[in-house]
UniProtKB/TrEMBL annotation:
Belongs to the aldehyde dehydrogenase family. GO terms for biological process: aldehyde metabolic process. The keyword Magnesium does not apply. GO terms for cellular component: cytoplasm. The keyword Zinc does not apply. Keywords: Oxidoreductase. It comes from the Bacteria. This is Aldehyde dehydrogenase family protein. The active site is at E87. One of its GO terms (molecular function) is aldehyde dehydrogenase (NAD+) activity.
């Protein structure tokens, strides 16, 4: 939308990981727009991106995906000196302070984490909770999971499925890397993984080294703000960060002391839908804010033009420069 609003022609490349969505999108684009205005191409991402980005001079490349692929996109764009906007991933933390309203916090975490079966780029990838309220939070998380998705979430019309078998196998590999305190059921034939809460995970395990992007939520306790901040620093530059607290000083400590793309206080993921806020990553989670006016500006080139008139001309511009000219200029420049 921002590209169209800014008056651009555009080429869309949907992910090959979601072929049905790509087919619907292709049909909609081709029925609505002329191909020389908005075009859509499908196929293997690596092959298509090489033909489009490395071999063509585009005015801008916008990419959503993993940090690893984003790095390749940026390298390809560099051959044509094409600017890029990258919305990448990362391990977005959710911090629950000792003074948080636990029941409210648990409800918001369940909503935001398990939306779209956890396959949301800004979903909290893990929870850091103060040890004094950890057990209460886990109990409240279980309660709200049951209220939202029932005793058998596989039968819930509100709980999704994993996008493909490759991602299903990757995700189920995480289930053995901690103590499952809720969920854990899975069905490969249905690409179903139950909303899962997992405790006692090691920081060195893959589940805490890689973006999960699925319905599995590790819970990690902490005692001090500094300890929580040190844990986050092991996976720097998250795309999002969420803090649940009733203390303004705790809010400032984390919001001002950690580099992240965007986030919420006492809520999760909804900043993504606020068109008055730029959506952006930082460092490994991306670059270039967009949404609303920020998106319009991102897809525009600011062309600077200055118009002059002969009536406003002055001899002060031109040599030979008389001594009093220089004195006047020096006074004007003070």
């Amino acid at each position: 939308m921002a590209s169209i609003a800014a008056g651009n022609t555009s080429i869309l490349k949907p992910s090959e990981e979601a072929p049905h969505v790509a087919a619907v999108l292709k049909q909609m684009i081709e029925e609505t727009f002329e191909p020389d205005y908005i075009a859509i191409v499908t196929g293997p991402g690596q092959q298509v991106s090489e033909e489009l980005i490395a071999k063509q001079h585009l005015d801008l490349v916008f990419f959503t995906g993993s940090t690893a692929v984003g790095r390749k996109i940026m390298q390809a764009a560099a051959t044509q000196i094409t600017p890029v906007v990258l919305e990448l991933g990362g391990k977005s933390p959710c911090i629950v302070a000792a003074d948080a309203s636990i029941d409210y916090t648990a409800k918001k975490i369940i909503f935001s984490r398990f939306l779209n079966c956890g396959q949301t780029c800004v979903a909290a990838d893990y929870v850091l909770v103060h040890h004094s309220v950890k057990d209460k939070l886990i109990a409240a998380l279980k309660k709200h999971l049951l209220q939202m998705y029932g005793d058998d979430p596989q039968q819930s019309p509100d709980f999704g499925r994993i996008i493909n078998l490759r991602q299903f196998n990757r995700l189920t590999g995480y289930l053995s890397q901690g103590n499952i305190v809720h969920g854990g059921q899975h069905d490969a034939a249905d690409l179903f993984i139950a909303p899962t809460i997992i405790d006692e995970v090691a920081m060195e395990s893959p589940i805490m080294q890689e973006e999960i992007f699925g319905p599995i939520l590790p819970i990690i306790g902490f005692d001090t703000h500094e300890e929580a901040k040190a844990i986050i620093a092991k996976n720097p530059y998250p795309l999002a960060l969420y803090v649940y607290t009733n203390s303004s000083s705790t809010e400032r400590y984390f919001m001002e002391g950690i580099q992240f793309g965007g986030g919420c206080v006492n809520n999760g993921v909804i900043h993504l839908g606020n068109t008055d806020l730029p959506f952006t990553g930082v460092g490994f989670s991306g670059m270039g804010g967009y949404h609303g006016k920020y998106g319009f500006d991102r897809f525009s080139h600011l062309k600077s033009i200055m118009r002059s008139h002969r009536l406003g001309d002055t001899p002060l511009w031109y040599a030979p420069y008389k001594k009093w000219y220089v004195q006047v200029l020096r006074k004007l420049m003070r």
